[in-house]
Write a structure and sequence with these properties.
With about 325 residues, this protein is an alpha/beta fold. Helices cover about 40% and strands about 20% of the residues. The structure holds manganese (II) ion (MN).
């Protein structure tokens, strides 16, 4: 084990001795959420543990870019998840990221929290929280290895999917030599890396391109704050036929301009509030900006929810101009 985590050995022991476990990643799952969820699930199955993978949105529907991921056929709806003695939360920076499953998670005898988000509240009975890890999948790889699980193509594929997405295809600063060595080891199991790249990064439905068009056309740049943002509404999604689950990467298009260090994407929620995703390329911690607004995340990638778009932009501009 590379990381110095107090609860590591107890977590490995719990994985080895559990009879049954319910597993959940965060709502609106991304590649790391799904990859770490299903790698853990497949690993537990191999150890003979009755494992149920899910997440707390009804219906829990796999995003189109991940329908190929091994273990997807085992995912159950959150209301059908059994009240197992062990509950494993994966890639959840806070307990409320479990959505509808926060209650069942807290009610379980043993709640294990495996995550790499800074500011994680250690909401589990056992906490494997490593902000230096590239991905939750990287932590799951270590836990499964220490639990004696032999990797196979399916497990390696899930782990690789988590790592390649959370590192931005090994481009972000969280990509350490150890991360790349692990990825190389995973490729030894015949992981279909080019096919994963194509499915995850180049498989947009045509309708998605139209939504991208709207979002980019609307983008607003504030050079004095080095800030760029854009937004989309519920009716944009309805008109384009794109699911909220499929909008995770819009922020990456907006952040790609050289004219801003900080980017935000405002996504209108069913209740009319805005889910705000933020990214930073500089010393500005969007994690701090998000936490100050009741959200959370990493220093360079974070999010929060706000009632009003204009007021939120104004308050972000105030802080960013102060920081500039
Ligand atoms: Mn992650």
């Amino acid at each position: 084990m590379r990381w110095n985590v107090d609860d590591w050995d107890a977590t490995v022991e719990t994985l080895r001795s559990a009879k049954a476990a319910t597993l959940a990643c965060h709502v609106n799952p991304d590649g790391d959420a799904l990859g770490s969820l299903l790698a853990t699930h497949l690993g537990l199955k191999k150890m003979g543990v009755g494992s149920t993978p899910t997440w707390g949105t009804s219906p829990a529907k796999i995003p189109f870019a991940y329908t190929w991921i091994p273990g997807a056929q085992d995912i159950v709806q959150p209301e059908d998840a059994p009240a197992a003695e062990v509950f494993i939360a994966l890639d959840c920076g806070a307990a409320d990221r479990l959505g509808d499953l926060e209650g069942p998670a807290r009610a379980s005898k043993r709640l294990i929290n495996v995550d790499h988000h800074p500011g994680n509240e250690n909401f589990g009975h056992l906490n494997v929280v490593v902000p230096d890890a590239s991905s939750t999948a990287e932590l799951v790889a270590g836990l499964l290895q220490d639990a004696g699980v032999e990797f196979d193509r399916d497990i390696a594929t899930c782990l690789y999917a988590g790592i390649v997405t959370d590192t931005g295809r090994f481009q972000y600063s969280n990509s350490t030599p150890a991360t790349l060595r692990l990825a190389a080891d995973l490729l030894e199991y015949d992981v279909p890396a080019p096919a994963i790249a194509q499915e995850v990064f180049e498989s947009s439905p045509f309708a998605y391109l139209k939504l991208v068009g709207h979002v980019l056309e609307r983008a607003v740049l504030h050079p004095d704050a080095s800030f760029v943002y854009s937004w989309f509404t519920r009716s944009d999604l309805e008109e384009s036929g794109v699911d909220m689950d499929e909008t995770e990467k819009l922020i990456d298009l907006v952040r790609s301009t050289r004219d801003a260090d900080v980017a935000a994407m405002f996504k209108e929620q069913p209740d009319g509030r805005w889910r705000v995703s933020m990214r930073s390329k500089s010393g500005v911690s969007v994690g701090a900006l998000a936490r100050a607004r009741g959200g959370g995340g990493h220093e360079l990638a974070a999010g929060f929810t706000a009632p009003d778009l204009e007021a939120t932009v104004a308050s972000l501009l105030d802080e960013l101009r102060g920081a500039a």
